[in-house]
Amino acid sequence: MSRPAVFLDRDGTLNAEVDFLTRPEELVLLPGAAAAVRRLNEAARVVVVITNQSGVARGKLDEAQLGRIHARLDELLAAAGARVDAYYYCPHHPTVGPDAYRKDCDCRKPLPGMLVRAAREHDLDLGASWTVGDSLRDVEAGLAAGTRAVLVATGKPDRLARESAACFAAADLGAAVDAILARG
Length: 184
Ligand SMILES: [Mg+2]
Ligand SMILES: [Zn+2]
What we know:
It is a single chain. By secondary structure, the protein is of the alpha/beta class. The protein has one domain (5-183): Rossmann fold (3-Layer(aba) Sandwich). It has helices at residues 33-42, 63-78, 113-122, 136-145, 173-183; strands at residues 5-8, 46-52, 86-90, 130-133, 148-152, 167-170. It starts with a strand and ends with a helix. Bound molecules: magnesium ion and zinc ion.
């Protein structure tokens, strides 16, 4: 039976937004983020990080460095008893970088490719899932994949044009998780 997931953007949602995070030491969890992830773990929601990382196409970091950043994120979360179940990243950019990374891919948010692939690979129920991010493109990717979505105010200054039961704003990841768990 397919399971409900919560898709989390990384920068500005789980950790403090910096312009192109390239080293594990630069990763700083936002206040309450680890506790929020732990509550999702305890509520049996599959926690999937989905992150645009065009810094790879731009030559700012390579995929091995990105792996080390995610290992550091795992370490910080584990210290608080929390875990990410899977990571998906888009290393591409439509116009910049070497051939392998320069393309119109289907994974760069606002497109829903990462969520769709995660659902297939982890047997996730997209209609019972949520997406949380600090950018409108996170919300758009989540809605396009068929999830509900929450926009948090801890990163980019994006605002929703209007809220609905399927799409609303919250102060931070902790408040987003409150709302998600209350709505089922
Ligand atoms: Mg973000
Ligand atoms: Zn991509």
